Amino acid sequence: MSVHKNVKRVTTHVLQEMKDNNEKISMLTGYDFSMAKIIDSAGIDVILVGDSASNVMAGHETTLPITLDQMIYHAASVVRAVERALVVVDMPFGSYQGNSKEALSTAIRIMKESGGHAVKMEGGQEIIESISRILTAGIPVMGHLGLTPQSIYKFGTYVVRAKQEEEANRLIEDAKALEAAGCFSIVLEKIPAELAARVAKEVSIPIIGIGAGNGVDGQVLVVHDMLGINNDFNPRFLRKYHNLYEEMTNAFKQYIGDVRSGDFPNEKEQY
Ligand code: KIV
Questions:
Q1: Which helix (H) or strand (E) holds 89?
Q2: Which protein residue has the closest C-alpha to ligand 1 atom 8?
Q3: d(CA 36, ligand 1 centre) in Å
Q4: N or C: which end of the chain has fewer CB within 10 A?
Q5: Which parts form a coiled-coil structure per UniProt (predicted)?
Q6: Looking at the predicted structure, is the pLDDT value of residue 36 above 90?
Q7: pLDDT tens digits, residue range 108-121?
């Protein structure tokens, strides 16, 4: 019997049951009330309040500038809209690396002030201490390995990660370390499909991929990308389900034309 069909509220346990039952997990990013309401009503399993808000909502080049207060603002807006999905909130850059006490305070602020259900953190064994401390407070943690955008200045580029054996082996070790620490799931970003499938087999927690092929337990995309709102972001892994850039442009042009011509508002559209 299908797990996700019988669930009123998605929890971390539901995601584990879905993996155990070979059901794929669907996840999308969300940053605001109105969009989150539509995504949740459509039946998504997980909404990630990603620090990609830094790019798509605020127009920054990287995810680094977004602050904890800004993440909490986005997450609280999403939580107010959601009835079914699990809401996972990204811990922003600088709020957990290197200091596990600060990491715990960050996670507690996110949970208390946004009402989110879990946090996500980028990195492997180097952040295990922070992850463990957060878990002891009863806060579920999702890991994130492969291309980790908060480390973009270390990588220097957004190309596919872990193509070489050494980095691939390190990634597998990191995934096992995250599982052993108690993470409930891991995002794998932009790594070879074969490697991602191997990780999904070798660890028992759900693996969610983005640009990591189809051999994993679920998929995540940035909602603005899959709706085609971003005209100039076209990586190979992205499937665009709409061309909202074009459709919205046409709607805006029509409105501007109607205002200029005096066609809007008409008699029925006034009091
Ligand atoms: O911030 C984000 O949107 C993410 C996804 C790309 C997984 O971390």
A1: strand 86-90
A2: 50
A3: 15
A4: C
A5: none
A6: yes
A7: 999 999 999 999 99
pLDDT value at 98 more than 90:
no
Atom of ligand 1 nearest to the CA of 120: 8
The pLDDT-based confidence of 6 (bands split at 50, 70, 90) is confident
Question: CATH assignment of 4-240?
Answer: 3.20.20.60
First to last CA, the chain: 54
DSSP annotation of 262 reads T
Long-range contacts, 198-204 (Cβ 8 Å, 24+): 198/172, 199/171, 199/172, 199/175, 202/172, 202/175, 202/176, 203/175, 203/176, 203/178, 203/179, 204/19, 204/179
Task: Specify the domain boundaries for CATH 3.20.20.60 within the chain.
Answer: 4-240
What atom in ligand 1 is closest to the CA of residue 29? Answer: 3
DSSP classification of residue 123: B
Q: Which residues are annotated as a binding site for 3-methyl-2-oxobutanoate?
A: 51-52, 90, 120
The band of 4, judged by pLDDT with boundaries at 50, 70 and 90, is: confident
Residue 1 has pLDDT above 90, yes or no: no
Mutate to test the pocket of ligand 1, among 32, 46, 90 (most ligand atoms within 8 A of CB): 90
What SS3 class is residue 52? coil
